Amino acid sequence: MRPLQVWSENLTVIVWKLRTVTSYMTDTCFVCLDPADREHPFTEPLCKCKGSLHLHTHCYIRLRELHAQCPICKTPYPMVDLEYENGLPVKVFTASDGLIHRYTYVDDATPHGIYYTYYPCGALGSLGVYKYGEPYKVTRKWSRNGALRERYSYLDGKLNSYYYKWDESGKQTSVVSYYRGELSGRVYTFIDDETVKITAHVRGRIADYLEYVHPSTLPDHIRVSAQVAGSVDGI
User: pTM of the predicted model, to two decimals?
Assistant: First the structure.
């Protein structure tokens, strides 16, 4: 190797190391020297530099596209790269329930973005959204045969609004009302085609209320078909 080339490569390493010191002391990315924010979170590099520098996820992706190894510690990057979606790494694993979970994440594998689960046969098990580690907005769950079984919503990471359930045949079985994580409001239990039992909760406690009505008397936002609730434009 030529002396000039050696000198040039050594200078490059020195520059990279100076940037890592600046990054660590100022809480900025050592590639672009910008701080982290919700749209551009930091991630951990897959090399010996892990824990000793700050690095944006999108900067890390670009760095791995340009270099076969870390420019600082010289650790070769894994041949099998991470999967990315919308600039965020994807995590896939099989949980104890046998379902395959797939989601994008930010720092420390905190879920952020659309969250999917699948049955081993490939059928969709659930579809929801996470926002920086907390469930967000609507989540839907399906049975192995594709029947929608549950539909519910979150606000600030807590169950909120109506929680709908259906059986395998698509018949509605219950509707429960939540307010910021607590049972609050009426609980509708569909006993048969002619009868719905209505009870109530106030801040998680059972209220002194009981009524039996015909399903046809229920408002439209309570008597909801699985087909409507399972659609993108549904409730």
Answer: 0.65
